[in-house]
Amino acid sequence: MKRIALIIFAVIANCQLPIANCNAQSLSPHATPASGGYFSAGGNSLSWTMGETFHKSLQSGNLMLSQGVQQPYIQLRILNLKAFIQGYYRSGGQMAAILYNTGNSTDPTACDSLTIELHHPASPFNLVASVKVILHTDGTVTAKFPSMLPVNSYYIVLRQRNSIATWSKTPFAIGSSASSFDFTKQ
Fold it and tell me: Is 76-185 CATH 2.40.160?
């Protein structure tokens, strides 16, 4: 009971009067599961993660609350990327399947995991959104951002666990339909 009272006090302390003008953070839901994916067809969608703790989803009418880290997106902003990691590159436009070869993925084309960030095009280049994705051996990546991401131009940043962050040369327009960006041509 003391913990609930402390949380309520902390929320009220961060609000301005009247209570309806609360300040809050906006976080992009993402998980780092062992495996998972997203599928959409015929107006229906299915998203899943494996290797995560099971959480129950509550639904009332058209409202749904997922207590876990996997949150449904009604629509997505899709960004298709192409990039190669120098140390994994073999030849002929192919990289080694590091995640698959080490037993960390069941996908034989899984090379490595990346974090894709979108940064505001003007100084101080604030982070707008980020997602964790799997880089495939052919250098392709599909990043799925929530539909609440404004249609705008952003710097695209690739972060890999063992390399320096790589930024796009100029801001790139992320539209309402799927967009494609090729780091190999920069």
Answer: no
Determine the Cα–Cα distance for residues 119 and 127; give it in Å rounded to an integer: 4
- H helices present in the chain, as ranges: 2-13, 98-101
Task: Quote the CA–CA distance of 115 and 107 in Å, as a whole number.
Answer: 18
Q: In 3-state terms, the chain is what percent helix, strand and coil (to 5)?
A: 10, 45, 45
Residue 105 has pLDDT above 90, yes or no: no
- Above pLDDT 90, what percent of the chain? 25
Residue with more model confidence, 24 or 112 = 112
Annotate 136-167 with DSSP letters as a single string.
ETTSEEEEEEETTSPSEEEEEEEEETTS--EE
- 136 falls in which pLDDT band (50, 70, 90)? very high
Chain centroid offset of residue 139 CA? 18
| Sequence spans of domains, the chain | 2-26+36-66, 76-185
| Structural element, H or E, at residue 102 | none
Per cent of the chain over pLDDT 70 is 60
Which residues sit opposite 30 in a β-bridge? Answer: none
Question: Given the DSSP bridges, would you call strands 89-91 and 94-95 parallel, antiparallel or unpaired?
Answer: antiparallel
Say how far apart CA 156 and CA 137 lie, in whole Å. Answer: 20
